[in-house]
Design a protein that fits this description.
mainly alpha, two-stranded parallel sheet, 2 strands, extended
């Protein structure tokens, strides 16, 4: 049920509450980003791990190739190498990754604060539905992000970094292009997973068409109404007045 305090609040107070929620979310994001910025070594060890040859998916393929005695399944040796072509490239990459990591760290807090702002305006049934939708959507989002990190991005990077149109054209991968692909694929897979779930599980309730009233029942009701009020101006209805010309009711 809606609370009376929220029903009586003017729009200006709701906007003030929303402003406070947004400022708290931004402050939490800033603090988490500063913490991530200070943890440069472990942060970039996680970010660059999918590019290394000893990443778990490549070690798993190598182990499987030895078990199956199928050498073609083992990934070729690859040593990642990145360059920075601009003076501010490495600092801006550090800042971008820190902001993304800070948002990841405080995303549960942001979701909780936004839901806390909206929840007083919802009925009990709407709250239950909203909690379920937010929970399932968040879990599916992170499942997509993790799938990209552990499976999709390592293979995408390995393919793109070793692809050559000519043997004498060397690949020199910039750090900004690596980070851009990493963030774009993570966001894409995170959004795609909830979308695939909503498409694959449509609503189970079939669409209902509006019922067409029976013309005979309407005629009977109109005659009873005319007799009850005793009005000489009400002409009785006939089925021909309701059904279109030339149509029949099955």
């Amino acid at each position: 049920m809606k609370t009376s305090d929220n029903e009586d609040k003017p729009l200006s107070e709701h906007l003030e509450d929303l402003r406070g929620v947004l400022w708290r979310c931004i402050a939490a994001w800033g603090v988490a980003s500063v913490v991530a910025f200070c943890c440069k070594t472990p942060l970039f060890s996680i970010v660059f791990a999918p590019s290394r040859g000893d990443f778990f998916i490549f070690r798993g393929m190598e182990w499987l190739s030895q078990r199956l005695h199928w050498s073609a399944l083992a990934p070729p040796d690859h040593t990642p190498s990145f360059i920075a072509t601009e003076l501010t490239a490495q600092f801006m990459t550090h800042l971008t990754v820190s902001l993304a990591a800070g948002f990841v760290l405080v995303s549960p807090y942001i979701i909780a604060k936004l839901y806390g702002f909206v929840a007083p305006a919802l009925y009990a049934s709407e709250k239950r539905a909203a909690v379920g939708i937010v929970t399932v959507g968040t879990v599916l989002f992170w499942m997509g992000v993790l799938l990209n990190y552990f499976v999709i991005f390592p293979f995408a990077y390995r393919f793109l970094s070793t692809y050559q149109v000519q043997p004498d054209v060397a690949n020199q991968i910039t750090i900004s292009s690596y980070i851009s692909l990493f963030l774009i694929l993570s966001l894409l897979m995170g959004v795609l997973f909830p979308s695939m779930h909503s498409i694959s599980s449509p609503s189970s309730s079939p669409a209902t068409l509006p019922r067409v009233p029976d013309p005979r029942a309407l005629c009977c009701l109109q005659k009873q109404t005319s007799q009850a009020i005793g009005s000489p101006y009400l002409r009785p209805l006939y089925p021909s007045d309701i059904l279109p010309t030339g149509s029949t009711r099955g």
